[in-house]
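Hi P.,

Sorry for the delay on this. The queue was packed all week, but I finally got your sequence through. Input first:
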Amino acid sequence: MEPTTVDMHDDKQAEDFFAVYHAAHVADTPDEPPPLRDEFLALGRQESAEVRTAFEAVYADNEMVGAGMVVMPTIDNTHLADVKIWVRPQHRRRGAGRALLAQLTRHARDAERRTLFAQALGPVPGGPPRDGAGARFLEAAGFTAVLSMVSRRVDLTGVDAAAEQALLEQCLPHATEYDTVTWDGTTPDPLAAGVATVTNRTNTDAPRGGMDIEQATLDARRLHAEERQWLDAGSQLVGAAAVHRPTGEVAAVTSIGVRPSGDHGRIRTTIAHPVHRGHRLGTLVKIEAHRQVRRLFPQLRYVSTSNADANDHMVAINEKLGYAAYQTGTNYQRRLD
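Then the structure:
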């Protein structure tokens, strides 16, 4: 199979690419909400100063049966290339994935990247089935597992409001010098620089195993540009921050992305600055963000998140808030010589 470059501005090619992605997603994770066509195409067609993306496909009998993309950061972590591959279930184990990986690797080499990154899903006890094929594929291709992640989700329609309030009241005596602020859409201008500064620590403060990743250098302008891209694609954003009253510093932040259909949300980040840790700010901002989501999107049911299995502190916060594990997501990487 010879891969063909996909032009996401060509309606037929873009529609076929999405159809492959949709088919693979529904087959592999039927318990997850299916991807949304308009959102996917809008994101795939956007120009970004932060990343360069190449799209490839393979065909059989004039039908697109496999699709892949490589996302290459252009400002931070410019040594990385993030690879994603999908193959229609009935066409697997025929070389489509290998052909796509080889072509995406060529893009990475041409861009002088030193590390390929990919992720593979797996099951958890009592969770929905995951066949583990992605991990086997990556390991056969020379990738090494470097960080074990666990995805969890909470059903916001089943939250015990009294228990949530009790948890909030347990946290407040530890955070007497902090105020919480919530918003929807882009981060408010007075908070944007502080939110960017705290968010930059995500790559390095959270457990990263052997991942070849460096701290980001996000600033207020780039933060707003990234947020506007998601909003322009139809998604909604909800944020919450803890602000240190004596200094005005943003001490902790969480952000939730909500699908355009308003039925599912995903935690984009949750982190507290090291100098402000120990005040239960992560729990506070997550509770406030959950409440903001329930107010704005009463039809929304699940919010999901993913954390390193070794991130005991954040895992404990999530479990107190009702998040339950439903799959693993092992991070793999391969060095390019």
